[in-house]
Each structure stands twice: as C-alpha cells, then as structure tokens.
Amino acid sequence: METRANYVLIGAFTLAVIAAAFGFVLWFQSLHTTKQRSPLRVIFEGPASGLRNGGNVNFNGIRIGEVVSVKLDNPRRVVALAMIENNAPLRKDTLVGLEFQGLTGVAAISLKGGEEAAPPVPLDEDGIPVLTADPNALQDVTEAIRATLQNVNRIVADNQQSVKNSLKNLEVFTEALARNSEKIDNVMVKVDGVMAKADNLMLGLNAIAGGNNGSELNLMVKSIRELADNVDKRTNFLINDGRRTLADISRAVNNFDRNPSRVIFGGSNNAAPEPAPAPAAAAGPRRRQ
Questions:
Q1: 235 is in which domain, residue-wise?
Q2: Where are the beta strands (DSSP E) in the chain?
Q3: Dihedrals phi, psi of 157, to nearest 5 degrees
Q4: What is the pLDDT of residues 181-192, one digit of tens each?
Q5: Is 119 domain-assigned?
Q6: Do the bridges between strand 37-44 and strand 130-132 make them parallel or antiparallel, or are there none, so unpaired?
Q7: What is the pLDDT of residue 102?
Q8: CB 108 within 8 A of CB 55
Q9: CA–CA separation, 149 and 154 (whole Å)
C-alpha cells in the first residue's frame, strides 16, 4: 500500500511540474506579446464591410497587427479594436481606410502616411489611441466594388447567348475529340516520329558543327577553301597560256601579212631581205677550208 501511495504522489508531482511549466511558458509569451504590442481603436463613420476579428492591420502595405474585436457603437458607427506593434510610426494625420484581397476577401484596416513632425495619435477617454477612418475613402472603396460587380453582371447579361454558344461549341468539340481519339493518337505517333527524326538531324548537325571542338566542320571548310584555291590557280594558268597562244597566233598572222613567201618557204627573221649577198657571206668559210 505504501509503494502504491508513493507512485501516486510521484505521478501527481510530475503532472503538477509539467502543468506549471506550460503555464509559465504561456504567461511569458502573453507578457512578451503585451509588451511588444499596444491597443489601437479605429472608428468607422459608416459601414465597414468585410471587417472581421483576426483581420490584418497594415501600415503602408506592411502587416503591423490584427483586429481583436469589431462592434457597433451606434447604428451609423463601427468601432474596431486592434493590437499593433509599438514601433509603428503612427501620427495624428495617418489616413485610415479598408483594403480588400479580391472581391470576396476579408477586409483589412489600412493605415497610410503621416508626417514625422505631426503630433502623436490622440488618446480616447480610456487612454487608448484612437483614429477615425475617412468616410470618403470608405465610400470610394464601396462604390468601386459595387461598380465592378455591376460591370461583371452587365457583361454576363449582355453576352449570355454568346456564353451559351461557346459552351455548346466546346461540348461539340469535346465530343468530336472523343470520336476521333484513335486518329488523334495516330497523328501524335507520326508527330513523335517526325520530331525524333528532327532530333537526329539536329544531333548530326551539332556533331558536324561542334563535335571535337568543331574539327570536322573546320576540315570541311579548309578542304573547300583549298579546292577553290586550286581551281583559281589552274584557271589563271589556263588564262595565261591562252594569252600566250593568242599572242603567237597574232604574231604569225602579222608575219604572213608582211612576207607570205617567208612563212611558206621558210627563212630566218634576222636575214637581210635581199637574197644576193647570201652566197658571198657563205664563200668565206669555204676558202678557210
């Protein structure tokens, strides 16, 4: 019996220690949160559509707190209490409004602007800072939402028949796809084959252009250049040879015009035009013999 009583006491003490630890952690967190945040009362002179508990409080688009309560002060005024960060640079001239995430999103309190030299936020009777929203801004937001919804409604109403026709055409198209699913599959198989051939072709071109740092392409270009140089050299040789041949033919024609007999019967171009002195010139060597 004593052993069992000891076990009960140890278990109860352990549970008490765990509960105390949890309580201390929660108390410390609440204390830390209380020190980091302070209340702010926001008054809306008119409707505050979409504002809920837990909604964000944004200053220049940055979240600085959240709404903890929303209530009606009178039939025409809504009072929201928010907890915001103590370092938020709020001033007396800070603009207050509502902002929405989409047409059906939860509204958030929007705080904007304020001069650094402006006085701080005035305090309410209970010492809580209070700001009043601009009714014109709220009205502008509400009117913009209403105008947007009306425009959407008008567009849908004006194009009701077109929407029906589009849906019907979509249904017909879907049925056609269902009927021709096998043909579409065959077409896609052929397309896959063409794409595979195109891939192989591109791989071949890539191998020619970039394989081994482009050596194959460089060799091909070098061979084409050498072939072009050889053709150019042979063409120049043939042209020069043709020019010499034409010059010889031209010279022969000129000689034939000047002395046809020399061309026909032969003779040296350096000999004198008179045939008589030729034997005398030849007699000298015979006497030396």
A1: 204-265
A2: 37-44, 56-59, 62-74, 77-85, 95-99, 108-112, 130-132
A3: -65, -40
A4: 788 888 888 888
A5: yes
A6: parallel
A7: 59
A8: yes
A9: 8
Tell whether the torsion through CA atoms of 172, 174, 175 and 176 is positive or negative: positive
> Helix (H) and strand (E) counts for the chain?
7, 7
pTM over 0.70: no
Q: Assess if residue 22 is contained within a domain.
A: no
CB 97 within 8 A of CB 113: no
Residues 236-289 pLDDT 10s: 777 877 778 877 787 777 776 676 666 565 555 444 444 444 444 444 444 443
Q: How many domains does the chain have?
A: 2
> What pLDDT, on a 0 to 100 scale, did the predictor assign at position 139?
54
Q: Are 80 and 66 in contact (CB under 8 A)?
A: no
User: What is the DSSP annotation of 97-152?
Assistant: EEE-SSSSSPBEEEEE---TTSPPPPB-TTS-BEEE--HHHHHHHHHHHHHHHHHH
Q: What is the pLDDT of residue 278?
A: 47
Enter the tokens of residue 111.
């705080």
- Does residue 184 belong to any structural domain of this protein? no
Mean pLDDT for 40-46 is 89
Strands 108-112 and 56-59: parallel
